[in-house]
Amino acid sequence: MENDSSCEKETLLADPQGRSRSKPQSPPSHPERHRTLLLISAFLITNLLSFLIGCSLNWATVGSTAFSHSTLDIEKDGVYYDMDRKTLHETTFEPFSYVMSKYATPAGGEIDVDAEWEALGANHEVFLIPPGHEAAFDLRPEHVLYAPEMVSHPPGVISEPGYPATIQAIHQLHCLNLLRKSLWFNADYYRNEAKGSWGHNQTDADVQVHVGHCLDAMRQVVMCNADTDVVPLLWFTEQGRTISDFARNKQCRNFESVTAWSEKHQVKALESAVLEPPPDFTLAHIAGTEYNACFVI
């Protein structure tokens, strides 16, 4: 189409009187016109190549990031092979009630609230991440890597090396449980019974630091998730009082699968194991070590 148009222009301009004439069978050579067309073609091709290269670089950046994430997720599947991490199901949250749930009832009552939290998985121990999965789990050289020869007692606790770790959801349960125990109507019970954090020869100052850590950990979880779903209001009394409607539908992960996996793969014996660190281990810097607290987070 472009060549036809050029030829048509040539025919019209060739006759200053505007008279039409037949197009020559073999148009004469026009070096200047060919040079111009070559320059225009080169310009268009150069711009097209620049556009394609830019698109390919952008695709490569996005593609490599997606591939990287996919690869790391696949590597996690190598460890979490028997855990359902991807299924979502709809759950309706509990509404506000003056009847406290079995997870919030005061300690020492008819309901064994500690057993309920135990069943949730709040006290699960660490599991071991096999070497070779460092990138997937963001593990660095300074992180603890257990080896069988490091456990002097009891013997045979672990047979293969691994990085001890806790699933975040399990640690968050642990923190919520500690916050529950430290509530004003529960703290005296656990202190008097020497249970929970009060059962490890810890002072009130130690417990205070531990509780503070858990409170701040949960703050960070809330801020990180930044849930933008809404809590609307319901009419509560004829006088115009309202109450928040907390019974909202949410898309939730398979919590039961996560806790079942954690229970199955935890290494309970490590809780009381005597460990000998390697000669080249790195000490973590902990702010406020003047407390000299010995509790385990």
UniProtKB/TrEMBL annotation:
The residue ranges flagged as biased composition, category Basic and acidic residues, are 1-12
Domain of life of the source: Eukaryota
Membrane-spanning ranges: 37-60
Query: What are the UniProt keywords, alphabetically?
Result: Membrane, Transmembrane, Transmembrane helix
InterPro entries to which the protein is assigned, alphabetical = UstYa-like (IPR021765)
* Keyword presence, Membrane: yes
Query: Annotated region Disordered: where?
Result: 1-32
Residue ranges of coiled coil: none
Q: Which family does it belong to?
A: Belongs to the ustYa family.
The record's section on PANTHER family has:
TAT PATHWAY SIGNAL SEQUENCE, YALI0B05434P
**Which named protein is this?**
Tat pathway signal sequence
